[in-house]
Amino acid sequence: MKHSLALSFLICALLARPAVAQSQEEDAPEANPGRPTVSTPATLTPVGYLQFETGVSAASHSPEFTSRFASNEVMKFSVHRRLELLASSEPFVHSRVAGQSANGVAEVFLGAQAVVSPGEGAKPTLAVSYFHRVYDGGAPEFDFGSPANSALLLASADVKGFHYDANVMFNEQNEGPVRRAQFGQSLTISHPLLHQLTISGEIWHFTQPFLRSNAVGNLWAVSYTMRKALVFDVGFNRGLTDSADMALNSERGFRLQSTRETVRKPNRTAFWRRNGIVRQA
């Protein structure tokens, strides 16, 4: 049985003018990170704010590769309180397959998420999401594969001090001209430990149509909220099936107001990405 390890650091930060009053900090929008868990929240980011989730991932013991290292980027922008636009990519991938190393680019996905039924408290927020792969760089994929098209049903709610995110996924996978359906489910339950710490547990499952198998994993994560728009996450993911891989990923991001702001180009290193400073024009 293979094991899976996932480590994710996610920073969702809102950077404005250097001198910001305490009242302005209190009114800052809350970060809504979707990492390091497989499940995606049904709730959206605040309207008019662009959220970046930037980081790296490292994996091993997968059917398609011996080891894999990649940078990744997720961007979210809500154009309406019920509609969010998303983009996801892995601009750099270093992999090792059968003793041979290679560098390349992985997939680029564009999509949208829409809230169909807003919720509050124990009443769940229900949403639907769709992603389409617009570019495939041919890099080796993770154990559960990479879909050409993906549709999701999402639900999120708070019950007796616990928060849950539940997803049902309907994916289309292809190998050459052959296309097959893939189905997945994930459930994440979170509970605050201290004032700024939250622990999350997750179980996920994906069918593997081309391997005629299933991938199942269990993930545990701890998040630290430094402030409303600044969150750190770290998680450990253990694969429970023979086809599950071992992965380590580190991620951070920030959210910035979309109007009258400029972004300085970020500095980049092999293992970490430093985000640019955002200043109001």
Helix-strand blueprint:
Blueprint: H1 22-26, E1 49-62, E2 65-80, E3 83-97, E4 100-104, E5 108-117, E6 125-135, E7 149-159, E8 162-175, E9 178-192, E10 197-208, E11 213-227, E12 230-239, E13 246-252, E14 255-257, E15 261-263, E16 267-268, E17 273-274, E18 278-280
Antiparallel strand pairs: 1-2, 1-13, 1-14, 2-3, 3-4, 3-5, 5-6, 6-7, 7-8, 8-9, 9-10, 10-11, 11-12, 15-18, 16-17
Report on this model:
A hairpin with a 2-residue loop joins strand 11 (213-227) and strand 12. Strands 1, 2, 3, 4, 5, 6, 7, 8, 9, 10, 11, 12, 13 and 14 form a 14-stranded antiparallel beta sheet that branches. The protein has a two-stranded antiparallel ribbon with strand order 15-18. The protein is 2% helix and 60% strand. It is built from one helix and 18 strands. It is an all-beta fold and 281 residues long. The chain is globular, with a radius of gyration of 19 Å.
Give a short summary of the structure.
The protein has 281 residues and is mainly beta. The protein has one helix at residues 22-26; strands at 49-62, 65-80, 83-97, 100-104, 108-117, 125-135, 149-159, 162-175, 178-192, 197-208, 213-227, 230-239, 246-252, 255-257, 261-263, 267-268, 273-274, 278-280.
How many alpha or pi helices? 1
Structural class: mainly beta
Low-confidence stretches: 1-21, 249-281
Compressed to H and E, one letter per element, the order equals HEEEEEEEEEEEEEEEEEE
Distance between the first and last residues' Cα: 54 Å
What is the level-2 CATH architecture name?
Beta Barrel
Name the CATH superfamily assignment.
monomeric porin ompg
Number of domains: 1
The percentage of residues in β strands lies in over 45%
Instruction: Name the helicity range.
Output: under 10%
Largest sheet: 14 strands, antiparallel
| Overall morphology | globular
Give me the Rg, rounded: 19 Å
* Mean pLDDT across residues: 77
In the CATH scheme, what's the topology name? Answer: Porin
Query: How many runs of DSSP E, i.e. beta strands?
Result: 18
